[in-house]
Amino acid sequence: MAWCPFARKLELQPESDQQPAIRPTQFILHSIAAPWTAQRVYEYWQTTNLESHFGLGYAGDLAQYIGTETRADANAQANRRPDGTGAVSIETASNLKHTDPWTEEQIERLIALGAWLHHRHGIPLRICRSASDPGYGYHRLHAAWSSGGTACPGDARVRQFKDVVFPGIVARANGDTPPPTEEDPMPSVITESEAGGPALEAGAYVLLRMAADTALLQGPCAYTVTAYATVSGRAGTRITMRFHDLAIATRRPSLDLPIDCGVIGADGVLNVAVTRSGNLGTNEQLKVEIRADQAARVDRRVLRALRWAP
To answer: How far is CA 263 from CA 108, 272, 277, in A?
Structure first.
C-alpha cells in the first residue's frame, strides 16, 4: 500500500488490512457536507461502513486513512472493479449543504495530492470520460460513482475543479508551477479557562461562554478551535455539542450537525471536547452550544484556538 508523504497518517482499522487491493486509476473528489477537520472525518469513518482514502479540512489539514492501493468505499462501482482497478477518494470539509467553494488552503492540497497520485500511480492527466475511464473527477461526474445519485461536491466546487483544481494538477504534475515556498503565517494562540458554567435543562441547547463572551472568535480569520467542558450530572446523561457561525448583521446562525460527546459516567462527571477548523468572514462570529438529555451542569470551560488573520 502507498502512503502520501505530506498527509498525516491516521490508519483506519480493520479496513486498511482487511479490504482487497486495487490498482488506482482514478482520483475522485467529494464534499462531506460537514465543516470537519481531517481528524474529525477519521473519527466519523470509525462509526460507519464507509470510508475515503483521504480527508481534508478547511485549513488544509490533510490526512490519509487507507493506503492508495487498498479499496475504500466512497465511490460505489468505482471502489473496485472486476479487473482490480479502483478510485482513490478524498472527502473535503464543506458547509452542511456542500454549496460553498473550497478554500485556498484546500485547493493547494488538492493540487499537490493530485500531482502526487499522477507520479506515484500513473493516473493520466485527463478528466474521466466515463465511469471506468482513468483520470480525475468529482463525485457527481458519473452516476456509477454513487449508489443513489448525488449533487456532491456542489456547483461552486465543480466550477473550481474545472477552472482551477484540475488545471493546477496538470501544471504541477508537469513541473510548470512549483508548490508555494512562502512560509505559513504564524497564528495567534488563544487559551481561555474559566471555572463554572451554565445549568443545562433537559433537551435544550445552551450557548457555552468562553471568558465573558459567547463568541469564541470573530472574523475575518481562519482558525482551528477546540472547546472543552467538564459536565456533571446523573450517570447515563448524554451530552451533545454543536458549533455555529453567526452573521452579526442578520443575527441568523448557521448551525452545524450535533456532535455526540458521550454519556456521564458512574462518577457523575464527563469531560468533553469538540474541534472545528474553518474561516470567518467580516462581522461573522463562531459560537458553540451544549445540550444534555437530562438536567446537568457545566463545571469548567476551556478554549484553545489558533487564529490566522487575513
So the answer is: 39, 10, 25
Q: What is the DSSP letter of 133?
A: S
Helix (H, G, I), strand (E, B) or coil at 25: strand
Closest CA to 31 of 82, 85, 95: 95
Amino acid at residue number 134:
P
Query: d(Cα 283, Cα 276) in Å, to the nearest integer?
Result: 19
CA dist., res. 159 & res. 165, Å (int): 9
60-106 pLDDT per residue, tens: 999 999 999 999 999 999 999 998 999 999 999 999 988 899 999 99
Q: pTM value?
A: 0.58
Residue 285: closest CA among 244, 226, 242: 244
Per the CB < 8 A criterion, the answer to whether 145 and 132 are in contact is no
What CA–CA distances, in Å, run from 120 to 5, 25, 116? 11, 11, 6
Residue 165 burial (10 A CB sphere; 0-12, 13-18, 19+): buried
Q: Is 169 helix (H, G, I), strand (E, B) or coil?
A: helix
Cis upstream peptide for 258 (omega within 30°): no
C-alpha 85/C-alpha 82 separation (Å) is 8
* Beta-carbon contacts of residue 250 (< 8 Å; ≥ 6 apart): none
- For the stretch 107-145, pLDDT in tens is 999 999 999 999 999 999 999 999 999 999 999 999 999
3-state SS, 215-259, equals CCEECCEEEEEEEEEEEEECCCCEEEEEEEEEECCCCEEEECCCE
Q: How far is CA 90 from CA 51, 110, 182, in A?
A: 9, 9, 26
Among 53, 39, 26, which Cα is nearest to 93's?
Answer: 39
